[in-house]
């Protein structure tokens, strides 16, 4: 199916990464394009499909797994280097060929690496706004999350979102280049800034969103219908005015950024979490690029209340682990415990603790 679509776009190869549009470490089922296409369920890899070949690149953690999961359509490449992927592409794609990809799934660095590797080879790196895997996936693709986006109670944050916004605006004013806006692509950035949480990605309390924060306006791009009543009231409490959050649909971010970038502006962004697709919308001279956005660096420094909450959470978690170890001591000699039942048990102890929202990754409960 993908090859049929590839031909209609005049492309000779299509690159499929394992990331989502926010460079998230973990992704939702809806974004598991690599897994759907290849059958490979490891968390990191890159696939390239040409009109008559297909290959998957992954690191040594996954070689055995990939051998089991890939069928004979696929060649397994035991490396992850872009040089290796590009070399393979140059061998398989004819000299005037197009190598296409979705620019909203590649980091700026990764895009630039492919661009450099193909430069002067006669092959063209062709960004396609529609994702070809999604087209092939069609109705079978899992739907977007419909769960609630909720406000984190003040007792956990130690800082109101309005104060966080004021702090970021202050950093904008103090910066030598005086940026007029900050663009946030990392999901935890928007969640932290507005004290909001969701569960769009398993084990991660985030929701799909972007934020464009200017000196006088705040634009939040997310699925509006999913905001809890309380969250919506909190965001709209400062309307009209500089602390009024304007709500836009998640899919509107590119169009909005394109309009904004036409003015006399400077957009500050963190390159680690911004995709090439968004980055390319803003003219180079209007960009202020740093590895991390000012929100990411502010978020990294926990206030006294957050530190207190972290310690309290670790104490509650330690109680659950001690209960688990005691349970193991009693039940392992009976020969009834395996890794899976152990994982279920430690999760149950954790769930029983106050404020628990579940583990932060799938429990790895035992060895040997």
Provide structural commentary.
This protein has helices at residues 2-8, 33-38, 63-69, 82-92, 108-118, 132-137, 154-157, 161-174, 187-193, 229-236, 253-260, 276-279, 294-300, 304-331, 339-351, and strands spanning 13-17, 46-50, 54-57, 75-77, 98-101, 124-127, 150-151, 181-184, 196-197, 210-214, 218-221, 245-248, 267-270, 287-290. The protein is an alpha/beta fold. It folds into three domains: 1-140, 3-Layer(aba) Sandwich (Creatine Amidinohydrolase, Chain A, domain 1); 150-300, 3-Layer(aba) Sandwich (Creatine Amidinohydrolase, Chain A, domain 1), CATH 3.40.350.10; 316-352, no CATH class. It is flat, with a radius of gyration of 23 Å. Belongs to the peptidase M24B family. This is XPP2 aminopeptidase.
Structural class: alpha/beta
Helix content: 25-40%
CATH class descriptor name of the largest domain: Alpha Beta
Provide the succession of SSEs: HEHEEHEHEHEHEHHEHEEEHEHEHEHHH
CATH homologous superfamily annotation of the largest domain: Creatinase/prolidase N-terminal domain
Query: Strand content of the residues, in percent?
Result: 5-15%
Q: Strand count, sense and closure of the main sheet?
A: 6 strands, mixed
CATH architecture of the largest domain: 3-Layer(aba) Sandwich
- Poorly predicted segments: none
Strand order in space, largest sheet: 4-3-2-1-5-6
Global shape: flat
Q: Please, what is the average pLDDT?
A: 96
Q: And the CATH topology of the largest domain?
A: Creatine Amidinohydrolase, Chain A, domain 1
Taking the alpha carbons of the first and last residues, their distance comes to 42 Å
Q: Report the C-alpha radius of gyration, rounded.
A: 23 Å
Task: Please count the beta strands (DSSP E, at least 2 residues each).
Answer: 14
Number of helices: 15
The number of domains is 3
Domain Creatinase N-terminal: 2-129
Keywords: Aminopeptidase, Hydrolase, Metal-binding, Protease
GO molecular function, one term: aminopeptidase activity
Family: Belongs to the peptidase M24B family.
């Amino acid at each position: 199916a993908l090859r049929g679509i590839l031909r209609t776009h005049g492309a000779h190869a299509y690159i499929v990464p394992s990331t989502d549009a926010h460079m998230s470490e973990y992704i939702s089922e809806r974004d598991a394009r690599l897994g759907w296409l290849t059958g490979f369920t490891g968390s990191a890899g890159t696939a390239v499909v040409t009109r008559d070949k297909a290959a998957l690149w992954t690191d040594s953690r996954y070689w055995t797994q990939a051998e089991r999961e890939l069928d004979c359509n696929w060649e397994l490449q035991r490396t992850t280097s872009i040089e290796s992927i590009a070399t393979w592409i140059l061998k398989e794609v004819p000299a005037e060929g197009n190598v296409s990809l979705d620019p909203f799934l590649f980091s700026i660095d990764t895009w630039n690496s492919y661009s450099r590797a193909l430069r002067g080879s006669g092959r063209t790196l062709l960004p396609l706004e529609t994702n070809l895997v999604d087209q092939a996936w069609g109705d079978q693709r899992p739907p977007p999350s419909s769960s609630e986006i909720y406000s984190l109670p003040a007792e956990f944050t130690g800082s109101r979102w309005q104060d966080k916004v004021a702090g970021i605006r202050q950093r904008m004013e103090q910066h030598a280049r005086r940026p007029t806006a900050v663009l946030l692509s990392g999901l935890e950035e928007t969640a932290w800034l507005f004290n909001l949480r969701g569960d769009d990605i398993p084990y991660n309390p985030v929701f799909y969103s972007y934020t464009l924060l200017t000196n006088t306006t705040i634009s939040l791009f997310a699925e509006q219908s999913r905001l809890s009543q309380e969250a919506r009231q909190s965001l709209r409490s400062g309307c009209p005015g500089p602390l009024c959050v304007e709500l836009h649909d998640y899919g509107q971010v590119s169009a909005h950024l394109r309009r904004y970038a036409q003015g006399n502006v400077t957009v500050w962004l963190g390159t680690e979490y911004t995709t090439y697709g968004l980055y390319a919308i803003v003219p180079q001279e209007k960009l202020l690029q740093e590895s991390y956005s000012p929100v990411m660096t502010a978020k990294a420094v926990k206030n006294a209340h957050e530190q207190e909450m972290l310690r309290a959470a670790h104490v509650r978690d330690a109680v659950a682990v001690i209960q688990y170890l005691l349970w193991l001591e009693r039940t392992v000699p009976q020969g009834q415990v395996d890794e899976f039942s152990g994982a279920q048990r430690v999760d149950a102890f954790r769930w029983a603790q106050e404020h628990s929202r579940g583990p932060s990754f799938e429990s790895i409960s035992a060895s040997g």
